[in-house]
Amino acid sequence: MAEQTKKWRIVAVRRLSEAQLEALSEVAEVDYFEDVDESNHADFMTALSKAHGLIGGKLELNEAMLAEAPALQVVSTISVGYDHLPLGALNRRGILLCNTPDVLTETTADTAFALIMATQRRLVELANMVREGGWRAHIGAEHFGVDVHSKTLGIVGAGRIGAAIARRGALGFGMPILYTASSSKPALEQHLGAQRRELNDLLDEADIVCISVPYNDDTHHLIDAHALARMKPTAALINIARGKVVDEPALIEALRSGGIRAAGLDVFVEEPLPSNSPLTAMDNVVTTPHIGSATHETREAMAQLAVDNLLGALIGCEPINAVNVNVWRRSASDDKET
Ligand code: NAP
């Protein structure tokens, strides 16, 4: 592409393939950072100060940094969650925020189900026992797990991922499905026989409680000590959403005291999970390092969608996935008027 068409500058951080970087470079000057840490933060800020677009996974951005980026028009995050980004400040500045829903839904639901299987059947604990030479006789009841099939699955947040988890449970494992969401889900009710419940009722009834809500002010500590106390002592909690949706110390206490039986956790208040967290040493807890969407195929698809979102937005198309699409619509109508 001719040099004069490169009217944009893009800062790209992590997770992009060579082909994707090339696609960006065809239309923009690209400053690529494999990672941003203390050692290159100043270089990152210099690049950001000239950028029209920012794309990447785990983007670190705050209001003060935005103030140093006067040309910024689009932030394209390689994630569906955007709780790590300052949406209010982006809105005030009229900066479009794009994310990558849908392409990661099935993979993240697979991860949730892996955690369900692992916690119910104690897979990690028992695999470790075999690895450590502890399998010396036929195993007895002290090593038995509990069934997955036919258990009641409670989905807290039956959106895209929650619904995909519910489908696996209902159609694959014959599980009755309960759910919460901000609005009712007639399709889930019709096709899976799912039933909507108030959160407290779901916690009372479910054998497995699966968290798939976005993190925001309303969902901060949605699962606190009170919520955990409502769960059956035989129940398991699965969290693939965000760590701060759950009051982690309260969860640790519930797991220690037998308030609930087990937990399968992909997300934590602090990530990476500190090695001295009690969660790493509990047999009834399965921890994974935030791998919800982490397959080759899905990460590639997410990065591609983020590239398409960014380029589309820069050239003025209505973006495929915009969190604050009103910002785009407003600026598009301003452009028409001027
Ligand atoms: P989504 O389609 O927006 O689903 C979120 C669901 O939560 C919706 O059904 C929504 O209700 C419901 N909800 C929102 N606030 C609620 C509240 N206070 N109480 C009960 N339900 C509430 O989002 P998604 O694509 O499924 O993703 C969900 C979250 O998963 C993301 O935000 C992200 O944080 C997390 N995630 C994690 C990983 C990982 O690697 N572990 C990967 C992908 C996503 P309505 O449908 O009525 O609006």
Automatic annotation (TrEMBL):
This is D-glycerate dehydrogenase. GO terms for cellular component: cytosol. Keywords: NAD, Oxidoreductase. Belongs to the D-isomer specific 2-hydroxyacid dehydrogenase family. The keyword Ligase does not apply. Residues 11-324 form the D-isomer specific 2-hydroxyacid dehydrogenase catalytic domain. SUPFAM superfamilies: Formate/glycerate dehydrogenase catalytic domain-like, NAD(P)-binding Rossmann-fold domains. One of its GO terms (molecular function) is glyoxylate reductase (NADPH) activity. Residues 113-292 form the D-isomer specific 2-hydroxyacid dehydrogenase NAD-binding domain. It comes from Vreelandella nanhaiensis.
